[in-house]
Amino acid sequence: MYGCNGLQSEDVYQTLVRLKYTEIDIFLVRMIIQELSSPLFYNSISAVAMYERMALQELDGDEQQLQSVAAAIFDYAFNEKLDIRKVVHQGRQWALVHKHHTYMEFLIAYHFSNCISSAQETLPTTFSEQC
Q1: CB neighbours of 95 closer than 8 A, spacing ≥ 6?
Q2: Which of 32, 33, 65, 122 matches a 20 to 30 Å C-alpha distance to 87?
Q3: What is the chain's alpha carbon radius of gyration, rounded to the nearest angstrom?
Q4: How many whole angstroms separate alpha carbon 40 and alpha carbon 35?
């Protein structure tokens, strides 16, 4: 599974042992190894770039849909007035969150950073109206 570009599973295992990781999340290890094996790897790993790339793969490269999914998850997490029974169920928006719990944190942060960027571009609008 990790044999591409010279990364061998035994080498990864031995490295984790040397670093004294006794409990490890295999999803995160796999994600980082895939990033290290990517031809786009430039000696630095950006967790945001990894999650964004993987989320866009799940959403067929549709950035608008990623923003929509992130906004819906943000609303679900922080809007106390949201009536979940009235929300239209969209399987794709929940598919990411159900893949791994860290996707939810990514989507919330992704939406929040988009809100801040949008607020900076349109200063007369208040932040609370945009998020």
Answers
A1: 58
A2: 122
A3: 18
A4: 8
E-strand stretches of the chain: none
Residue bearing the bigger pLDDT, 95 or 4: 95
Report how far residue 4's alpha carbon sits from residue 57's, in angstroms, rounded to the nearest whole number: 20
Identity of the residue numbered 87 = V
pTM of the model: 0.68
Residue 87, φ and ψ in degrees, nearest 5: -80, 130
For residues 6 and 84, give the distance between their C-alpha atoms in angstroms, rounded to a whole number.
47
The 10s digit of each residue's pLDDT in 31-77 is: 777 776 766 656 666 778 888 988 898 899 999 999 999 998 898 88
Q: Rounded to whole angstroms, how far apart are CA atoms 19 and 22? A: 9
